[in-house]
Design a protein that fits this description.
With 227 residues, the chain is mainly alpha-helical. The chain has eleven helices and three strands. Helix 6 runs antiparallel to helix 7. The N terminus is likely disordered.
Length: 227
C-alpha cells in the first residue's frame, strides 16, 4: 500500500500557485494503457509528484526514463482516465452509471500507482454512492478480486454489508453466492465480532477507509453526501 509523509503534497489538482508552477516545466511523458495502448501525453512533473510508481519509472534507471513512455498493458483505460482527471482537477467525476465498478477499479489503480490520495477520492465516491444504494454481490466479488487482503477497500465493503443488513429495508444481498471467495467469510466474521454485533454506517465516519487523513479529508467527510 502507498504511504504519504506529506498529505498536502499528494492532493490532486493544480488549484494553487505551487501546483500551477509544475505545469511551467514543459517535460512530458506518454502513458499507454490497455491492450489497445490508449495514449495520454501528460506533464511529467505531475505524474512523478503524485505517484512514486511513475517517479521510479521516469526518473530511475529503467528504459522509461529514457523514452519518457510508460506502458500499462494490464490496466483499464477508463480507470486511468479518472486518474488523469483527478491529477489535473483534484476530483473524480465519474458518471453515476456503474459507479461502484468505476470507483473500485480506480482505487485498485491508485494502489498500483502508489497514489493514496487518488484512492481516497475513489473511496469517497464509493461511500457516497452507498449512502442510498445497497452493496451488491457483484461489487463485493470485484472488490475481493482486485484488492489485497486487509485493505481499506475490503474493510469498507464488509462494513457496508453489515450496515446494509442491519437496516430495516430488506437487503437483496445473497452472501451464499460469494461464500467461496477467499477471505470473505473470515472478514465478515471479524466485522461482527470486533463490532460487538452493532453495525455502523460507513458514511458517518469515512476516515477508517481512507489512506490519507488530513484536514481536507475530514472536511470531505462532513460533506460526503455531496461526493
Amino acid at each position: 500500500m502507498g504511504t504519504v509523509k506529506d498529505a498536502d503534497s499528494n492532493k490532486g489538482g493544480i488549484a494553487d500557485a505551487e501546483r500551477v508552477s509544475l505545469l511551467q516545466d514543459t517535460a512530458i511523458a506518454t502513458v499507454r494503457v490497455g491492450k489497445d495502448a490508449k495514449s495520454w501525453i501528460l506533464h511529467k512533473n505531475l505524474l512523478t509528484r503524485h505517484s512514486p510508481f511513475f517517479a521510479a519509472a521516469l526518473n530511475g534507471s529503467f528504459k522509461e526514463a529514457t523514452t519518457n513512455t510508460v506502458e500499462l498493458v494490464d490496466d483499464d483505460p477508463e480507470s486511468f482516465q479518472l486518474f488523469v482527471q483527478w491529477l489535473y482537477t483534484g476530483e473524480i467525476k465519474a458518471d453515476i452509471d456503474n459507479l461502484p465498478t468505476k470507483a473500485c477499479r480506480a482505487w485498485a489503480l491508485g494502489d498500483k500507482l502508489q497514489c493514496p490520495a487518488f484512492q481516497d477520492s475513489a473511496m469517497l465516491r464509493l461511500i457516497g454512492y452507498h449512502r442510498t444504494e445497497f452493496l451488491t454481490e457483484d461489487t463485493m466479488r470485484l472488490i475481493y478480486t482486485i484488492s489485497p487482503p486487509e485493505s481499506k477497500l475490503r474493510k469498507f465493503a464488509v462494513d457496508q454489508l453489515c450496515w446494509d443488513r442491519s437496516c430495516e429495508k430488506k437487503h437483496p444481498f445473497k452472501a451464499v453466492e460469494i461464500m467461496a471467495v477467499e477471505d470473505f467469510n473470515r472478514d465478515l466474521l471479524e466485522c461482527f465480532l470486533l463490532g460487538g454485533g452493532a453495525a455502523k454506517d460507513p458514511s458517518d465516519k469515512a476516515s477508517p477507509y481512507l489512506e490519507v487523513v488530513d484536514v481536507e479529508k475530514r472536511r470531505m467527510e462532513r460533506d460526503i453526501s455531496r461526493v
